[in-house]
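Input.
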Amino acid sequence: MPYRLRTLEQHFSEGGPKRILALDGGGLRGILTLGILKKIEDLLRQRCGNDNAFRLSHYFDLIAGTSTGAIIAATLAIGWSIEEVTKKYFDLGARVFRRSLLRQGFIRAKYDEGRLIEELKAVFGPDTTLGSNTLQTGLLIVIKRLDSGSPWPVSNNPRGKYFASREGGVIGNGDYKLWQAVRASTAAPDYFEPERITIAQLPGHPPVYGDFVDGGVSPFNNPALQAFMYATLRGYRINWPTGKDKMLVVSVGTGAPDPAVRRSEIAAAQALRSLLSLMEDCAALQETVLQWMSESPTARKIDSELETLEGDSAGGAPLLSYVRYNVDLQWAAISELLGDEAKTIATENLTAMDSPENMPALHRLGVVAGERRVVAEHFPPAFDLT
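Output.
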């Protein structure tokens, strides 16, 4: 069917069912996300009359991302197609993740953030802000303020309490540079240095800075629950209605890491391993809570005791429709997905987040997973654009 283009304000304030897309962090494994998103874009384009100009920013009212998911979310929010983002992503991976003998271990960050900044400025523009009309739909970027220890959901929601600059010199989210907010969300410890953002400035006084790191070290490496809360909790001032026919949350992962992948046994590496394990625990809890609150055709088995939570519903009726797509990066799951093709892939290293050589295989996994698992029934007619 034909569809009507909506303004940014209409995405936020217009009545009717609302649609959220949430994209996980995971370094260069984000290329797997793009493989799945290609099928989603194709399916929704067919729903909208096969218009070649269709973009995911036309369908989704809020696109949320953490870390590498923030890069993808922001490019989608400015109206890029999946094909365009994928091409840029392959190029970015090869340019940014270059190893250097001068950057070893835990003495300093492994990679030079200067290359990443250069790439982000080229994509978003050096002066484009979160309040810019370049953004065609709602955008939510999860970052973490290191010096206060608090997660910050930063958005272009024009009614947000901290969107506009305020008395006392507080600089609002809408005045943050888009590239800088994205860069902050990608500042993964050990990989990149923190991003320093000016958060307050009074004439005649020194600026107040915040040091920000990857949103993945908050509970929201998978930003789906944060996005749902952002859209519904009164303090965030969006106040979208809940219900299985009123809100759709589509969550896309970067691949579930293989727990058997071994790391160095030195103490610092063990500390990093513990952090990654905690992030995986948070991700599992996110899925459990979202399945508990929702009606979900993709609900996975949580464990042998809880099963899929079918029949459970927090508060009685489902608060949303929830769809989750991801790929298990263990050998058995990859073999089941790809068949004999799996033998051509060095699967033991796919869990790594900073290996450009893995990107073709990860993208292939995402494409195949999308073709097999993304189906029209996951996008109910109640959420069609008219």
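The two ends are 7 Å apart (CA to CA).
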